[in-house]
Amino acid sequence: MEIELRGASHEVLEELAVANRLLEASSPQEIIHWAAERYGQRLTMATAFGPEGCVILHWLASVAPTTHVFNLETGYQFKETLELRDRIAQRYGLEVVLEHPETTVEEYEQLHGGPLYRTDSNRCCGDRKIAVIRRVLVRFDAWMSGIRRDQSTDRATAPIVGWDHRFGVVKISPLATWTKAMVWELIVRENIPYNPLHDQGYVSIGCWPCTRSVTVDEDERAGRWSGTAKTECGLHSSDH
Ligand code: SF4
Mind listing the domains of the chain with CATH numbers? Predict the structure, then answer.
């Protein structure tokens, strides 16, 4: 089913530009609080249970625990990632909704004569992530993600809050100005649950077929779609 994208009026873009300027110097908790106040139950959060997502969930549990949170369950996630969802639920009482594609992995691979991640990873991400997030975001006015500006050149200009042309909703990035070191310092200090694969050299963790561990001198997203030109699945492409 084709989903019609919403556009933003001049007034909405102006409001977002003002909010973005005001929030640039705010703490992530203040940004989350602002988002929850401004959008209420029309706010959602997407998480792949990376360290940044876990940190946001840690705050969300006290700031706005009834916020809808979802994970794109492609069918190719590591078991450690799905177990982390259970650990988050036990620690914070937050239920992260698993959003599935229309087909199971078995059906999908049968349909395409084998795993598409080997031959057409853009189509695979398109079917198993992008189509699913479009279907979810159409029910909301704003979504929150854990991207940081220092993760990659694609993400370096991400605003705190802005219009997400790709999905026709407002996008909020409370950790945009944070560094990896700040995220991990908080995780250790607050004993926040995290994916144990990080202790095995995996830095950025997505689906298992498209993720490898990295060495200390590699870029933190070098382990994603390694050996190909692909750097993003399309959720956070450069127009943010
Ligand atoms: S990351 Fe890999 S397995 Fe996951 S949806 Fe994209 S191509 Fe498919």
Answer: 10-195 (3.40.50.620)
